[in-house]
């Protein structure tokens, strides 16, 4: 699928970058003229994926998070968030709502949020090599008023 | 610190502000827990009126406080949730445990 526009970003896995990452993607998505709700959905889904990199992939270290975004035909936004961290042993289990390995203050709903706030979610992971989360969001076509 | 705390009788109200993500949740958690420990309320109200963004870290924050309150039998209310915050919160099923009001908007 040929991208109409793209951007890439590499950031260290510091928790201060959570807000930077979601705002960067939301700003890029703005050219698709999304609704307030769609922008909020995108920010939330990106925040979950980036938080997973920080909390899980690079749990006791700082590593690089790679964000690649593409605008595809028919007002679709593809967001790829990749890390070279520890990887996920059992993706199916990790994606189950309320499952978490991170203890009491984490809800275990990160993937559930990504799934419900985007139109498509793919997770690829190799133990010891890293994880790539790919999300796609369709932006509604609005009549000009 | 984006947390304002008011205690009246046995009711402790915490007004949260700004963005609740993994980065911000830690500070909020410490503020809330310190206030609960000090005031020992029978009802904790978390007010979301001035929260502009929340991801599942906010759900973790609420769930964690709910568990803590259970030790003393205190209740938890979530108040004035803006639409985007409610949309995240309802994924958690917390409505079964805490009373939620969505605010005026």
Describe the structure.
The complex is a heterodimer of chains A (145) and B (105). Chain A has 145 residues and is an alpha+beta fold. Chain A has helices at residues 17-29, 36-57, 91-94, 110-117, and strands spanning 5-12, 64-72, 76-83, 120-126, 130-138. Chain A has a single domain (5-138), classed as Histidine kinase-like ATPase, C-terminal domain (Heat Shock Protein 90, 2-Layer Sandwich). In chain A, strands 1-2-3-5-4 form a 5-stranded antiparallel sheet, with helices on one face. In chain A, strand 2 (64-72) and strand 3 form a beta hairpin. Chain B is 38% helix and 33% strand. The model of chain B has no long low-confidence stretch (mean pLDDT 92). With 105 residues, chain B is an alpha/beta fold. At the A-B interface, helix 1, helix 2 and helix 4 of A face helix 1, helix 2 and helix 3 of B.
Can you tell me the overall shape of chain B?
globular
Tell me the number of helical segments of chain A per DSSP (H or I, 4 or more residues long).
Answer: 4
Query: What is the first-to-last residue Cα distance of chain A?
Result: 31 Å
Low-pLDDT runs of 5+ residues of chain B are none
What is the β-strand count of chain B?
A: 5
Relevant CATH superfamily of chain A: Histidine kinase-like ATPase, C-terminal domain
Strand element count of chain A: 5
CATH architecture of chain B: 2-Layer Sandwich
- Helix count of chain B equals 3
CATH hierarchy, class of chain B? Alpha Beta
- CATH topology of chain B, by name, is Transcription Regulator spoIIAA
Any low-confidence stretches of chain A, pLDDT <50, length ≥5?
none
Helix content of chain B: 25-40%
Q: What is the count of distinct domains of chain A? A: 1
Note the main sheet of chain A: 5 strands, antiparallel
Largest interface comes to: A-B, 25 and 23 residues
Name the quaternary structure: heterodimer
Sequence of strands across the biggest β-sheet of chain A: 1-2-3-5-4
Tell me the CATH superfamily of chain B. Answer: STAS domain
The name of the CATH architecture of chain A is 2-Layer Sandwich
Strand residues, percent of chain A: 25-35%
């Amino acid at each position: 699928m040929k991208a109409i526009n793209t951007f890439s970003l590499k950031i260290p896995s510091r928790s201060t970058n959570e807000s930077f990452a979601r705002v960067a993607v939301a700003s890029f998505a703005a050219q698709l003229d999304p609704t307030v709700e769609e922008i909020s959905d995108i920010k939330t889904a990106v925040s979950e994926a980036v938080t997973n990199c920080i909390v899980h992939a690079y749990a006791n270290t700082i590593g690089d998070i790679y964000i690649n975004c593409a605008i595809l035909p028919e007002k679709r936004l593809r967001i790829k968030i990749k890390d070279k961290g520890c990887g996920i042993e059992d993706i199916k289990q990790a994606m189950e709502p309320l499952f978490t390995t991170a203890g009491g203050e984490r809800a275990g709903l990160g993937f559930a949020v990504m799934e419900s706030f985007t139109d498509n979610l793919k997770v690829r992971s190799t133990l010891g090599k890293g994880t790539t989360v790919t999300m796609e969001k369709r932006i509604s076509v609005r009549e000009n008023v | 610190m984006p947390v304002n705390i008011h205690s009246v009788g046995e009711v402790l109200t915490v007004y949260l502000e700004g963005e609740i993500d993994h980065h911000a949740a830690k500070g909020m958690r410490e503020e809330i827990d310190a206030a609960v420990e000090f005031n020992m309320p029978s009802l904790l109200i978390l007010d979301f009126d001035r929260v502009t963004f929340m991801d599942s870290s906010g759900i973790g924050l609420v769930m964690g406080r709910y568990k803590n309150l259970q030790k003393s039998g205190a209740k938890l209310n979530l108040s004035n949730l803006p639409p985007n915050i409610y949309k995240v919160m309802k994924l958690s099923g917390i409505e079964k445990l805490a009373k939620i009001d969505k605010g005026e908007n």
